[in-house]
Design goal:
The complex is a heterodimer of chains A (about 500) and B (about 300).
Chain A lengths: L1 H31 L8 H11 L3 H7 L7 H43 L5 H59 L25 H14 L10 H16 L8 E5 L6 E4 L3 E5 H6 L3 H16 L2 H11 L6 H9 L3 H12 L4 H8 L1 H21 L5 H12 L8 H4 L4 H14 L11 H22 L41
Parallel strand pairs in A: 1-3
Antiparallel strand pairs in A: 2-3
Helix pairs in contact in A: 3-5, 4-5, 5-17, 7-9, 7-18, 9-14, 9-15, 10-11, 11-12, 14-17, 15-17
Chain B lengths: L2 H26 E10 L2 E3 L7 E5 L2 E2 L2 E4 L6 E7 L8 H14 L5 E7 L3 E8 L3 H9 L10 H13 L5 E7 L10 H10 L3 E6 L2 H7 L5 H21 L3 E2 L6 H15 L1 E6 L8 E10 L2 E9 L3 E3 L2
Helix pairs in contact in B: 2-3, 2-8, 4-5, 5-7
Classes of the chains: A mainly alpha (about 500), B alpha+beta (about 300).
Chain lengths: ~500, ~300
């Protein structure tokens, strides 16, 4: 009986496997043979042009653009195909450089006892050049190209969905429904209670700061009183017009990362890179307001509770730091090592990330409100966001966005909130103080750059070699510079 | 011989010593870091008059200088599938080292399995070293090409100015390196730096020693000998802890030794002949001239 049962189970298993195999085999050629999506050249050109624009421009123009759903779908498919082929091309180049490199190294090893110093130097230079080329090709294939195309796809989504969204927003405003939204009571900022007991986070924040300093993860502070004073005053002004109930403790860190982060209890860290990247006071105020919103929303505290639910025996404040800080990955992984939790990254990404997204969106909404309430143009936040996102190929130093929800969702949510806010005159976009801070910051940056130049490096080039070849692609360059658009036939137009 | 040829030959002959003199001049000044020990005790505060320096047995004039700051410390860690059984040792050692590391120095991290990987270039934020260590994920390759890795890191550090230290965390085992042990030894003999070793897998070795065959035991002995050689040739020290907790003490010891190092500088008289030249430093107790301290200093130099 048991034997028969086993036989039946085996047979069932075999049938299931064979069905799965036949389905997948049948599907594979179909997918491979699917004709590439095609668009009439003028439509493709128009879409390509639109996708080069900034998010802000698209918010204005999208309602006037007339593309059908089929055309948008076709364009999405074209972007997918371009991304795949562009990344494959650079992966192939990286492999080719790696092969050449291996060959060169083998040849050097074979000849190492016979060649003179000059010949050795030449070979070292060739190896160095191949290493640089391989590494550049890999970075482009794995980072710059996906970032650039994800950006285009997000803009396509905006073209597709924003007109409808805008209609809904206008209807909501006309019907007064926008006042019923969560945290819609913007006229009561400072007198409403988002989450009680903000004060209880101060101790946790202090401990986290101390731990971070001890761990050697905190960049040095900016040693310029003018810059520190300006940033502190700006943050205090926003703090005063927010729901903050704890004193704000502002630190300006001397790091080129475009980043800011807040720890529970009102500990705000602004990095030099952010000050450099902000073009005006409204942009900087927008980012600072977003970080203050993390404190007022007690997001750190809520993450700690989540951590307990997830049964992670882990320092709660550090979990908060991990999620809510831009440079969090490094801090988190350090603690993972410190406490011996090697699987922590996975636990966090599965258990915490959903919570983190909600919190980011909430911080966006509250941040926009705080900047507006403090008298700054709330569009500054999305202008800054836009500037960063539109810098296609800009793959370094964007940690502020690393742990955050997709661009499209954040841009639309922030724009919606701005449209819901009551109109206000005389909102500040820039100030002479901001410009004065920028001048002071220039000195700090110059000094930091000099120190960076003098920094020892294991990756430093061999002395006396010609500069390694560079694949020409700078932040802000269109991705077509790397992968020119292939000539597509005009048959099957949509 | 024609007149032109004679002139050319004379010019060439005149130029040769000039060239080698220029090279000797650039290579001639040697900076050596060393510690003075009396048993387990590190002796600091000795003056120039308490030292004597000998090169190839001949006394050489020297100067004691302030140690250069900051130190450029590279952590070179074995990280391979083959190290799986003692990977915990490696991680513990790295963590202990970075916990004990003082602020102000430059730290970098390189790992190796099939090949050397610069995981973190020099940074002043020591926390980034451990953070980067975790980010590399599970080891992919099964090779442990220790000889290639040491050779390559020595080459990379060769061009950097200042006071350089390597802390090698690994077993010393080697699988398919292109460099031989002799190649690495020659490279270490020429390198102006100290190598300290935090041995990994010693505890495991102790536990399974009785089950090992002769060949395996020989491999392990050779691995240990290799690590000892690196430390000895460069004036560092190799540690092979038998307990995991010992890594913390070792890390502290390494930094105390670095803190207690003397720096001497002398003009070498030997020529760059690609041969090894012995160096000896003697240190005497200022209160008892008969008493000689132990000096932990590199064994000598090889000049390329």
């Amino acid at each position: 009986m048991a034997g028969k049962m086993a036989f039946r189970v085996r047979n069932c298993w075999r049938s299931a496997v064979s069905v799965l195999l036949s389905v997948s085999l049948a599907a594979a050629p179909a997918a491979a043979q699917r004709p590439p999506a095609q668009l009439a050249p003028e439509v493709r050109r128009a879409l390509d042009e639109a996708l080069q624009k900034s998010y802000n421009d698209l918010f204005e123009e999208a309602p006037r653009l007339e593309f059908s759903r089929t055309q948008i779908e076709a364009m999405r498919e074209i972007l997918e195909n371009r991304q795949t082929s562009c990344a494959s091309e650079f992966r192939r180049r990286a492999e080719a450089h790696a092969r050449d490199l291996r060959r060169e190294q083998d040849s050097l090893r074979a000849a190492t006892t016979r060649i003179d110093d000059a010949e050795r130097k030449q070979r070292h230079c060739r190896i160095q050049n191949l290493r640089a080329l391989e590494s550049q090709a890999r970075v482009l294939a794995e980072h710059a190209i996906p970032v650039a195309y994800e950006n285009r796809k997000a803009k396509l989504e905006l073209i597709e969905k924003w007109p409808e969204e805008l209609k809904r927003i206008r209807e909501d405003i006309a019907a007064g429904r926008h006042l019923q939204r969560k945290w819609g009571d913007v006229k009561d900022i400072g007198f409403r209670e988002l989450v009680p007991d903000q004060e209880k986070d101060i101790k946790i924040g202090q401990e986290t700061v101390r731990e971070m300093k001890m761990a050697g993860l905190m960049p040095p502070e900016v040693d310029n009183p003018e810059v520190k004073r300006y940033v502190t005053q700006l943050a205090q002004r926003i703090g005063k017009h927010s729901d903050l109930r704890v004193p704000l403790n502002v630190t300006v860190l001397n790091s080129k990362e475009i980043n800011a982060f807040a720890l529970p209890g009102g500990f705000l860290f602004i990095q030099r890179g952010l000050l450099e990247a902000a073009e005006n006071e409204a942009q900087l105020a927008g980012v600072i307001a977003h970080e203050i919103a993390h404190v007022t929303g007690r997001h750190g505290h809520r993450l700690m509770k989540r951590a307990t639910v997830s049964s992670i025996i882990y320092q709660a404040a550090q979990v908060a730091a991990l999620i809510l800080t831009g440079g969090a990955a490094t801090i988190g992984t350090y603690y993972a090592l410190q406490y011996g939790f090697y699987g922590l990254g996975l636990v966090l990404s599965l258990d915490m990330l959903g919570v983190s997204r909600e919190m980011e969106l909430e911080a966006d909404q509250l941040g926009v409100q705080y900047a507006w309430n403090a008298g700054f143009d709330p569009n500054g936040f999305i202008h800054f966001f836009d500037k960063m996102a539109t810098r296609e190929g800009y793959v370094n130093g964007l940690s502020w966005f690393r742990t955050h929800p997709p661009f499209y969702a954040r841009m639309v949510q922030s724009k919606r909130e701005i449209l819901f806010l009551p109109p206000k005159d005389g909102l500040t976009v820039n100030s002479t103080e901001f410009d004065a801070m920028k001048r002071e910051l220039k000195k700090v940056t110059e000094q930091a750059e000099q120190e960076e130049k003098d920094r020892p490096s294991l990756l430093a080039p061999v002395q006396g070699c010609p500069a390694p070849e560079k694949i020409e692609f700078k932040p802000g360059d269109p991705i077509e510079k790397l992968c020119p658009e292939p000539a597509e036939s005009s048959s099957g137009r949509r | 011989m024609s007149g032109t040829r004679r002139i050319f030959l004379r010019q060439a002959l005149t130029a040769l010593p000039l060239l080698s003199a220029a090279r000797a001049q650039s290579l001639g000044q040697r900076s050596v870091y060393f510690t003075v020990e009396d048993g387990d005790r590190l002796i600091t505060g000795l003056g120039e008059s308490q030292f004597r320096v000998f090169e190839d047995g001949q006394p050489v004039p020297f100067r004691l200088l302030e140690p250069e700051k900051p130190v450029l410390l590279t952590v070179l860690a074995e990280y391979s599938q083959a190290s799986g059984l003692y990977l915990n040792d490696i991680v513990t050692a790295a963590r202990a080292l970075m916990d004990a590391a003082p602020e102000g120095n430059w730290y970098s991290l390189a790992t190796f399995s099939q090949e050397l990987q610069i995981v973190k270039d020099f940074t002043r934020m020591k926390g980034e070293i451990l953070a980067s260590f975790d980010e590399i994920g599970q080891p992919f390759w099964g090779e442990v090409n220790t000889y290639d890795a040491v050779f390559e890191i020595l080459e990379k550090l060769e061009f950097l100015p200042g006071r350089k230290v390597i802390v090698l965390i690994g077993s010393g085992l080697n699988t398919l390196s292109r460099q031989t042990m002799a190649d690495v030894q020659r490279k270490a003999e020429a390198a102006a730096l100290n190598i300290f070793v935090m041995g990994a897998g010693t505890l495991l070795r102790g536990l399974y020693d009785s089950y090992l065959d002769a060949a395996s035991r020989m491999n392990l002995l050779q691995a240990e000998a290799f690590l000892n050689m690196l430390a000895k040739k460069t004036g560092g020290q190799a540690f092979f802890p038998r307990f995991e907790v010992a890594y913390r003490d070792i890390a502290r010891t390494i930094f105390t030794m670095l803190d207690s190092q003397y720096r001497l500088q002398y003009e070498s008289r030997v020529k760059p002949d690609n041969r090894f030249h012995r160096l000896r430093v003697e240190a005497r107790d200022p209160r008892d001239s008969q008493k000689q301290y132990t000096v932990r200093v590199r064994e000598g130099w090889r000049w390329y």
